[in-house]
Amino acid sequence: MERRVALKSMAMAVGAMAGLPAWASGWSKSTLEKGTLLTADQSKILAAMVETIIPKTDTPGAGELGVGGFVQKMVTDCYDSKAQASLKSGVSNLDEQSIQRFGKSYSDAGKEQRMQLLQDIDKGSDTGQKAFLGMVKNLTIQGYMSSEYVMTNLTHYEMIPARYHGCVPVTKG
Amino acid sequence: MANFNIDSTKARTYDAIVIGSGISGGWSAKELTEKGLKTLVLERGRDVQHIKDYPTTNMMPWEFEHRERLPKEITDANPIAARCYNFKESSAHFFAKDNEHPYIQEKPFDWIRGYQVGGKSLLWARQTQRWSKYDFEGPARDKFAVEWPIGYDDIAPWYSHVEKFAGITGNKDGIDTLPDGEFLAPHDLNCVEKYFKESVSKQYKDRHIIIGRAAHITDPQQIHLDQGRAKCQHRTICERGCPFGGYFSSNSSTIPWAMKTGNMTLRPHSVVHSIIYDDKKHKATGVRVIDANTKEMMEFYADIIFLNAAALNSNLVLLNSTSSRFPNGLGNDSGVLGKYVAFHNYRASISGEYEGFLDSTTDGRRPNSGYIPRFRNVHKQETDFLRGYAAGFGANRQTYNERNGLGESLKAGLLETKYGNWSVGSHMMGETIPKESSYVALDKTQKDPFGMPMLKINVGYDDNDEKMIKDYIEQVSEMFTQAGFKNVKSHDGHRNPGNDIHEMGGARMGKDPKTSVLNKWNQLHACKNVFVTDGACMTSTSTQNPSLTYMALSARAVDYAVKEMKAKNL
């Protein structure tokens, strides 16, 4: 009986998984809505960070594509507590650095100032901050490359190829 | 249950009962209902109807909020299932959850289960090779386990029967270790796979590289269209359930086919407790079921019973079916029930690179790969280990994107796909030896959440397996090196038994009732109206994937059972 009640409340909690029957959404995390890891301000900093990693050019950057939210979701749901702590402290440290050096929050800093802060981490000796940057960079790349915008407009994902040819010439793309 | 009135008993009486709706149960149901028998199919999990109940099948990659990775909470709660390659965000709903279905590991054993209509037929890797005469003759020649009561010729027509209906892609390769079947158009080997095939055939008379034989409709025939299935679309996301019915599953094929006869009743949420044996009639009269939702115990009755609960669960049901005639489990006069369990050994793999064909690549996707049929100890014993291994083989053109730097240079690098060398890889599929010491048994005290005794599993690797792994690594590395592949590396993943999802045996077939549980018709020696045609029946394991053999044995056993029933011999 307890299980049934649990399943029911689970089904209500996962409104985000609309369209899936209860038994399927039962597999999604019951606590997905348990709140995010970062505060609203920290989330803005993370968004600015992923936009700096993959910026807007003639196509949207990672910030505009919502990759910051993806990075945070992955770390919250799929990573261990150590990685979660690293994300939190990494964002705070990045912001402190920004305030110290440029007198403003990372999310308000200029494009070049933001980039400089990341490059300093990259070249610096703080292994904790380096690990933080590496984790965010990897997840940013994953989130960006698997975003609807990129897969639809830039890398042209085929859901249904309906073919396999074992030997075709390489074409320069 | 003695107070059921007569009408209720009648309403619970069928001509046949099939326990389980996976690959073999689906076939039992199809064949029984086609022959006109009113058949009850019991499934312990929920119903999964073709297309309607495949919630992820049409989702795009970006629609998975964790891009196929599962939340930690789920992998932590399901450490066994999480070790399965196919347990991911798009398919996890087709796996049994560890904590809801506990069992006892006397040795590490990853028991991977699919508890729903269709069972693991929604999740399988779809490789379907026939066994050869060498596989059926193995135990007698090499003096292990017991002799198979059937040979290749007994089952060959039934392989044809099921291949035509299921739809199998493959090439007629004319190899005696791997008999040809009724094939639809083969998939392509790619340039490096073809090159490796030539390289190997120059060096060895008896080693072959072929395209895999797989349950995909590459060229739909009328019989497939009649099932409502269509051509494989090469999506390679099969584990979500295929809306085209492009690959064979019970859900897209045998179960709806059986339903259409009007003779099938499907009862999901039915955990089978035991088979009821009547001491006076000297036969089984029905099945005791625990309703998974209400936990209510109920009984259903039939003239013949097909047990297709999947290998280890079929053992569990038989072991739990006790009576004064069978105090140690139904049909267990020999005492071997639950013993001589074996599996396939997928532990080792080999990778490498090829620097040729750099002006070529592949196009599209292929739900299949190359295959190396067994070549060791085939015609005679030639190594210090028994039996042999088959292997998968595949090549892919590597592509990569520069991930250096940050900012615009990183972005430019990510969006320019570059070609590297071809990567090549192989994994072993080894035959393991069924032994008396490899067993499953019921725990005397611990019960699962349904009130069933918990299954204890005691199955592990042995010295023969270790020697075979070593030989596979040596031989295939040598074949790679001869082909000029570079950077050849071998890897022993030390995965637990069970993770290969090919557990077999426990209620083995045999000629002698003193040493086996089933006869050559998959019929209990000691209870003629009960048939077991899933992995539990296997006397030995071969190197080939077992599913096609379960299908063929099921169809063959039903044909026999119905004839015997009509002749009033059951």
Automatic annotation (TrEMBL), chain A:
Keywords for the protein's UniProt record, in alphabetical order: Signal
Q: InterPro entries this protein is in? A: Gluconate_2DH_su3 (IPR027056)
* A Pfam family annotated for this UniProt entry: Gluconate_2-dh3
Signal peptide, first to last residue: 1-24
User: What is this protein called in UniProt?
Assistant: Gluconate 2-dehydrogenase subunit 3 family protein
Q: Which domain of life is it from?
A: Bacteria
Automatic annotation (TrEMBL), chain B:
Q: Residue limits of the Glucose-methanol-choline oxidoreductase N-terminal domain?
A: 213-323
Keyword vocabulary terms for this entry = FAD, Flavoprotein, Oxidoreductase
Q: Which molecular function term from Gene Ontology is one that the record holds?
A: oxidoreductase activity, acting on CH-OH group of donors
- The superkingdom listed in its UniProt entry is Bacteria
Asked if the Swiss-Prot or TrEMBL record annotates the protein with the keyword 4Fe-4S, the reply is no
Cofactor(s) of this protein: FAD
Glucose-methanol-choline oxidoreductase C-terminal domain span:
434-553
Does the record bear Transferase in its keywords? no
The record's annotation in InterPro entries points to:
FAD/NAD-bd_sf, GMC_OxRdtase_N, GMC_OxRtase_C, P2Ox-like
In this record, what's one Pfam family? GMC_oxred_N
Q: Which family does it belong to?
A: Belongs to the GMC oxidoreductase family.
- What protein am I looking at? GMC family oxidoreductase
Species whose genome carries this gene: Dyadobacter chenwenxiniae
User: Mind giving the lineage of the organism this protein is from?
Assistant: Bacteria, Pseudomonadati, Bacteroidota, Cytophagia, Cytophagales
